[in-house]
Amino acid sequence: MESTSTSKTVPPTVVILGGGFGGLSAAKTLANKPVSVTLLDRTNHHLFQPLLYQVATAGLNPADIAQPIRHILRDAGNITVVLAEVSSIDPSSKRLLTPQGRSFTYDYLIVAAGARHSYFGHEQWEGNAPGLKTLEDALELRRRILGAFETAEMAESEEIRRSAQTFVIVGAGPTGVEMAGAIAELARHALAADFRKIDARKTQVILLDAAPRVLPTFAEDLSASALKQLRHMGVDVRTNKTVKELNAEGVTIDGEFIASRTVVWAAGNAASPLARELGAATDRAGRVLVNADLSVPNHPEIYAIGDMASFTHQTGTALPGVSPVAIQMGRRAGQNILAQIDRRPTRPFKYFDKGSMATIGRNRAVADLKFARFGGFLAWLGWLFVHLIFLIGFRNKAFVFLEWAWAYFTYSHGARLIYGAFRPKVSPPGSA
Ligand SMILES: Cc1cc2nc3c(=O)[nH]c(=O)nc-3n(C[C@H](O)[C@H](O)[C@H](O)COP(=O)(O)OP(=O)(O)OC[C@H]3O[C@@H](n4cnc5c(N)ncnc54)[C@H](O)[C@@H]3O)c2cc1C
Fold first, then answer.
1. Do 294 and 328 touch, CB atoms closer than 8 A?
2. CA-wise closest residue to 151 among 431, 418, 422, 421
3. Which atom of ligand 1 is nearest to the CA of 132?
4. Contact present, 112 and 23 (Cβ < 8 Å)
5. How do 66-68 and 45-47 pair as beta strands?
6. Which residues, other chains included, contact 167 with Cβ-Cβ below 8 Å and sequence gap of 6+?
7. In the prediction, which pLDDT does 430 show?
8. Phi, psi of 29 (to 5 degrees)
9. pTM to 2 decimal places
């Protein structure tokens, strides 16, 4: 086999930045191939983000939806997993740097560092309206959601009780819809018998979006079905509503103030800031405008994939930030690097879209499988099946299946723990 810049006996070095859906898929493609791979991630685990909302709403535990990356890749002798945060990339010297001054050089680089939330220029809102991307985010949201019920139980005024039992979710995409449905169910079923002073069933869940319909990326009939299912669960859905102000007391939308102690941000995404270091053009969400073969313009040795890449070559608009796109891109980037090493031409990426699904709650979901669109119980069963199949690791599949079966038959959420001390603010502002 021919090598590039290194000697014939030393295999080319590939660095993969990120062990999420894209990075892990690239690593599996390069496993046990004649390349020396280093996978860098700032966490030690691969996270199954589609089920994060269940950790946030006390349905699952963190270990149910995450796996140590080095364990997943234990049989790939040519891959070294390093727990490290990358703070900058220097394409001219082919080097990545960590805040501690460590550096990693590469012959080929796959950048798959994902995305964070975007507050559309209102970054100061983050403290009062956290989003959901990591296990820390999910545990923080769980602490706030369960803590809100504790606050309501101890409230010294009706005003405080009401704002503690009002949950606002900003953004009615799949994550917002899932969060709204899950909080409504938590209140109406799992917590209903646990409190003495409050009636948990009287909890108000408000789902806001600036767009005219929920699940705007789905077909209109599925949006309408999701809206009906959400309303049936008691979720107050308000579309065409833009958040104007947000603070610790609540949210202001188009002149109306909603008093709420718990606001969840599910409204926007921005690619990892590392995308800007690659010297290529980016779109409004900060994603790299990649070439058809996923390489970065003017850098055939660098590939950007997953939530960091804007790939418009297939449909004219950027592919959505979903896990199948990242997985398939990871595979193509890995295959293209092997092609370059073998001095074969790289191949353009082609996304195979199997459809999309969103769950709303118990027995409720919508599915667009290309050949059929439907909502309700069948869509929900399909959603459960697909998520179990794609969850990594047999242990995780088994535990999640058991947790779901338990929750389904008992209406209970088994993970209702608040980690750390929680001090509810139960007095009106200004009092002791
Ligand atoms: C709450 C939620 C629900 C979702 N639900 C669905 C769904 O139902 N279906 C679906 O298809 N998609 C869903 N998605 C989207 C899907 O998870 C993403 O599209 C997918 O994870 C993108 O893969 P990625 O590899 O680009 O990034 P990620 O999977 O986010 O991986 C990025 C990795 O890079 C690491 N990293 C980031 N920055 C650094 C750094 N500076 N140094 C070192 N490491 C770094 C991170 O720790 C992470 O491991 C959901 C996303 C979220 C947040």
1. no
2. 422
3. 1
4. yes
5. antiparallel
6. 145, 148, 180, 183, 203, 204, 205, 206, 260, 262, 263, 264
7. 53
8. -65, -35
9. 0.94
Active site residue 178: yes
The 10s digit of each residue's pLDDT in 252-280 is: 998 899 999 999 999 989 999 999 999 99
Give every CB contact of residue 349 below 8 A, 6+ residues apart in sequence: 292, 293, 294, 311, 313, 314, 328, 329, 332
> How far is 305 from 332, CA to CA, in rounded Å?
9
Query: pLDDT tens, 98-120?
Result: 999 999 999 999 999 999 999 99
92-95: list long-range contacts, CB under 8 Å, 24+ apart: 94/301
> b or e along 28-46 (b: 16 or more beta carbons within 10 Å of the residue's beta carbon)?
bbbbebebbbbbbbebebb
- Residue 23, ligand 1, Cβ within 6 A: yes
Crossing angle (nearest 10°) for helices 323-341 and 21-30: 30
User: In the chain, which stretches have pLDDT less than 50?
Assistant: 1-7, 432
Distance between CA atoms of 22 and 225, rounded to whole angstroms? 32
User: What is the rounded distance in angstroms from the CA atom of residue 340 to the CA atom of residue 224?
Assistant: 48
Task: Report the distance separating Cα 336 and Cα 333, nearest Å.
Answer: 5
Q: How remote is the C-alpha of 216 from its chain's centroid? A: 17
Whether ligand 1 lies within 6 angstroms of the CB of 173 is answered as no
Whether ligand 1 lies within 6 angstroms of the CB of 330 is answered as: no
Using alpha carbons, list the distances in angstroms from residue 16 to 21, 311, 323, 324: 12, 19, 17, 18
Of 250, 234, 237, 232, nearest in space to 211 by CA: 237
Measured in Å, residue 424 CA sits from the centre of ligand 1 at 32
349 lines ligand 1 (CB under 6 A): no
Q: Which residues contact 193 (CB under 8 A, 6 or more apart)?
A: none
Alpha helices in 174-257 (DSSP H): 174-185, 220-232
User: Element (H or E) spanning 357, and its range?
Assistant: strand 356-361
